[in-house]
Prior knowledge:
The protein is of the alpha/beta class. The chain contains 9 helices and 8 strands. It has helices spanning 3-13, 17-20, 39-53, 56-63, 94-105, 118-128, 154-160, 180-188, 205-222, and strands at 23-32, 68-76, 82-91, 135-144, 167-173, 194-199, 228-230, 234-239. It has an 8-stranded mixed beta sheet, sandwiched between helices. Strand 5 (167-173), helix 8 and strand 6 (194-199) form a beta-alpha-beta unit. Helix 3 (39-53) runs antiparallel to helix 5. The two termini are 23 Å apart.
Amino acid sequence: MRPALFLTLAFALGLPAALRAECRLALALAVDVSRSVDAADYVIQTEGLADALIDPAVQAAIFGAPGDVAIMVYYWSGVRHQEVVAEWRLIQAPGELAALSDQVRHMPRLPVSLPTALGEALRFGRAQFDIAPPCARQVLDVAGDGRNNEGIAPRRIYEKTDFGNLVVNGLAVGEHESGLESYYASDVIRGDGAFVEIAPAQADYPRSIRRKLLRELSEAVAGRAPGGEWPEGRVFLTSATAPKR
């Protein structure tokens, strides 16, 4: 259902004001838990994402502009291994954001060691937006530390699946594979203004995911930002004319 139609029906049905507020951004966060992510890396990622969600600047970006933000989180690894950590929820108060952060922080990792099925992670993420709240902008935020090495490739997923206006941004975590940022820029990101955030090593993940969230939340208010410099002077690879595919 389109946001405008949802709002019209909400008023007609007399729903509470909190539910009538238009959603400006639906954001799905996809986290790589494949076998290249060891136990120490997993802790860094989990704590980094949980901390970023309740970071004061991130909270200000969420609550300091009109309209709600909807967030969901899922883990991905092998072809048939995508796991929803947190289902879609409208974040309308700091307490709800804190609860999401706590849920991420305490999510146990499954005791499996699987390849990197990045194409299937994208397919799974696309399907989540079929059940997302109606929002003006849709963004899939995919973090990973390697190229696709199992199942269908990202390029083929885009050829076979209609992603519509969904924007796919990437967080390329270096250390395990060289040139990963270029791979993400050429094969993974898509849509108007899509970009790649770079974490040279796992230790850089917390800072990188925070910057990435700030940019995505800001773009949902101000429209697509130009490429180049962003908060804290970080240089991004961007794809301002990334094909719809």
